[in-house]
Amino acid sequence: MTDFERTMRSFAIYGDFVDAQPYGTGHINSTYKASFDQAGRRVNYLFQRINDRVFRDPEALMDNVSRICDHLVERAERENLPDASRRVLSLIRSRNGEAWVRDGDGHYWRCYFFIEGATGHDVVQSPTQAKEAARCFGEYLRLLADLPGGRLHETIPDFHDTPGRFQNLLQAVENDPFDLASAVEDEISFFLDRRDDVGTLIDLHRNGMIPERVTHNDTKLNNVLIDTTTHEAMCVIDLDTSMPGLSLYDFGDLVRTSTSPVPEDHQRPDEVRMDFTMFSALVEGFLESGVDFLNESEIAGLPEGGRIMTMEVGMRFLTDYLLGNQYFKTSYPEHNLVRCRTQIALVQSIEEQMQKMSDCVETTREAKRKSIRIS
Ligand code: ADP
Ligand code: GN1
Ligand code: MG
């Protein structure tokens, strides 16, 4: 029996192990799809080794994930949603009842039922898909608004502290351990030119305009599973960064990942753009339930959320490039630089369309309010 098989066996899974392969395109954890034969029927599971360089306290993280999944299951059952087991992640517990297993090297693993017939997408395929993804993430915020049990653990402190991310970039430029900074002066200047803007979201919160909520904080398009037949967004996944945050982080990362026609690591930044049709679809989907619980400043801030989140991730990619690619998984040395360049191009495209985006948000909000009044 291999170490991996021993780890899998420590979860309360019965039957004969058939096979396993690496799965998905996430940048952080190590993910495997494994299948077991259970009395002649194949059942698939999703195993993940939690990246403990990124998540310093995996037990606290799993405490968050368990609480969230329990709450969402209860809500799905109460609302009598069809197909509930494909709408909420189901954790498989270890044989001694924990939400995780530690392997021989001390790393933490978790296991979920594999959700069949639904996939994540790295690039948006249609406005319907964008709308669905945003609707599902908006629902996630709504459903977690009454999560019992007190504040969630902060699994990565200061995760969306954009001014802090900017300082980290400055520090990396100053230290420049691999002597790379002089070759990326244009990229560095791009962020320096926007130094006065990095605090816009956090300031809205500090000034009391927008509230802290339980947010997902990593609402990449590929962190929602979309039904391959009905195209309905079924299940929000990758709950590791679900913790106190701002709704604009969640909408913002949707703009970052669901409006460009090319992938995050596309080699030709001139082909990146913020497709306005996708943006309108995101607003439509997010406000479907959001119009009821988001305040005026949150709704008005949606375009700025997109701009700042894209800027933040661009800075993080550049920082990681300068520091030797220690954080994000990469396939080649310039991978993070390539990713940074697509984010820069996307910020530029967003900036060119800010007024139009704000008008769209306002029109959609009014239309939704009107339809609520009529019905
Ligand atoms: P990472 O933190 O590395 O991004 P994710 O939790 O997003 O890891 O998982 C990686 C990929 O695995 C996802 O993009 C998705 O395609 C797939 N995945 C995760 N959980 C499930 C699940 N329960 N059922 C089916 N696929 C899943
Ligand atoms: C990481 O785990 P994944 O691939 O869904 C990262 C996000 C970044 C994203 C950039 C915990 O998301 O913050 O926005 O890469 N997650 C973490 O693609 O750092
Ligand atoms: Mg992911």
Description:
The chain has 375 residues and is α+β, with helices and mostly antiparallel strands. The protein folds into 2 domains: 3-116, 2-Layer Sandwich (Phosphorylase Kinase, domain 1), CATH 3.30.200.20; 127-374, Aminoglycoside 3'-phosphotransferase, Chain: A, domain 2, CATH 3.90.1200. Helices cover 45% and strands 13% of the residues. It has 12 helices and 10 strands. The strands form 3 sheets. Strands 1-2-3-5-4 form a 5-stranded antiparallel sheet, sandwiched between helices. A 3-stranded antiparallel sheet has the order 6-8-9. Strands 7-10 form a two-stranded antiparallel ribbon. The longest helix is centred in the first third of the chain and has 21 residues, at 58-78. It is globular. The mean pLDDT is 97. Bound molecules: adenosine-5'-diphosphate (ADP), 2-acetamido-2-deoxy-1-O-phosphono-alpha-D-glucopyranose and magnesium ion.
Tell me the helix content: 40-55%
Q: Report strand order across the widest sheet.
A: 1-2-3-5-4
At the third CATH level, what is the topology name of the largest domain?
A: Aminoglycoside 3'-phosphotransferase, Chain: A, domain 2
Secondary structure tally: strands: 10
Ligands in the structure?
A: adenosine-5'-diphosphate, 2-acetamido-2-deoxy-1-O-phosphono-alpha-D-glucopyranose, magnesium ion
Shape: globular
CATH architecture annotation name of the largest domain: Alpha-Beta Complex
The total tally of domains equals 2
| Strand-pairing-aware structural class | alpha+beta
Q: In DSSP terms, counting alpha (H) and pi (I) runs of 4 or more, how many helices?
A: 12
- Beta content: 5-15%
- Give the H and E element order: HEEEHEEEHHHHEEEEHHHHHH
Mean pLDDT: 97
Oligomeric description of these chains: single chain
